[in-house]
Amino acid sequence: MTSLTQARSAIQVKSLKDLRRALEVDFRLIAMIAGIIAVWICFDALSGGVFLTPRNLWNLAIQTSVVGIMATGMVLVIITRNIDLSVGSVLGFTGMAMAVLQVRFFPIGAPWNWAASLACGLALGAAIGAMQGWWVGYRGVPSFIVTLGGLLIFRGLAWSLTEGQTVAPLDEKFQLMGGGLSGSIGSFWSWVVGAMGVAIVLARTLMTRRNRQRYGSAVRPVWAELLVAAVSVGAILGFIAIMNAYTRPRTDLGQGIPIPVLILIGTICAMSALTKLTRFGRYVFAIGGNPDAAQLAGINTRLVLMSVFALMGLLAGLAGAVQTARLNAGANSTGELLELSVIAAAVIGGVSLSGGVGAISGAIAGAVFMQSLQSGMLLLGLPTPMQNVVIGLVLIVAVWIDTHHQRRRV
Length: 410
Hints:
Elements: H1 3-9, H2 16-23, H3 27-46, H4 54-79, H5 87-105, H6 113-137, H7 143-162, H8 172-175, H9 186-214, H10 222-245, H11 259-277, H12 279-289, H13 291-296, H14 301-327, H15 338-348, H16 360-379, H17 384-409
Helix pairs in contact: 3-16, 4-10, 4-11, 4-14, 4-15, 4-16, 5-6, 5-7, 5-14, 6-7, 6-14, 9-10, 11-12, 12-14, 15-16, 15-17
């Protein structure tokens, strides 16, 4: 029983393959992080040192939150061998519905205004996702067709709600979800959140190692365990330091973590737990790996598919709340072409279009990569049509890399 432990501890690093076995880290994720760093250095040089300033990185974190929230749901959709082309339109429709409820139906200034409109928006998003999942799971209509129709339907409904008019201003508490100068938790509470993150990383490392040793499973060498923990802790503390380095106007007080980024962190934790620790997560991967075998094993594949799309709709509603709060208005153009960024983030992050393979962490890295590209191009003054050209090319290259990787596995 202890032979595996001893064998793993005795690994001698003589090649990159040995290092990969010792660290047990996805090298595609490391390659993605290296790509992000390269993009940051390139844009910083081209922008004269503006890209890597605390202010730009703080804004980049907020911009990533919307795509990142939806990318966590797109991971599950793609793992089940489906696609959702309607997320941008669902985001725009639910965001517009929340704005209309706040401004035209609920009493302005009521303390429950923002909470009630948010709850309605999330319920609307989940209902839309469940409806689309019903067509895919129970009626057998390809998800490409269903969600392509949804892209047109919900974009049109968003326009019809107000006949093209922009709805503003929104409730002040609701605006905090979008970030801004008041939508952050300050430096002290940011360090508290960072300390909690460090404690969770260290406790998880110790518990995982003890459980593996208890059941005789292979464990990392001690040096590899310490290295992975040190890099994780360093990343958390570095992120907090950057968020605090951007100060509030005319003060020395750090802004700290923006609220939309806190929402993204909470979403990442919840979705990671859902995929790794629950029976539902195992069913999703089983369906993506082999749908027929999953059905023969007794899994209710139709219900799981509908649940996955409902979850995607719920997350699109949450992202719609963040984006609408950030704009402080319900606008018809909200979320246009955002589905491309979300799908690209998931695919670039290692989620296979063939199904059965993917991780939340990879999709978040992909979201950071996509938003870094867009932020850098915006900073350099590249016209919007050319930005879309670049995003389209990146999506094609990402799919080509995934296809090439799948052929090598076969």
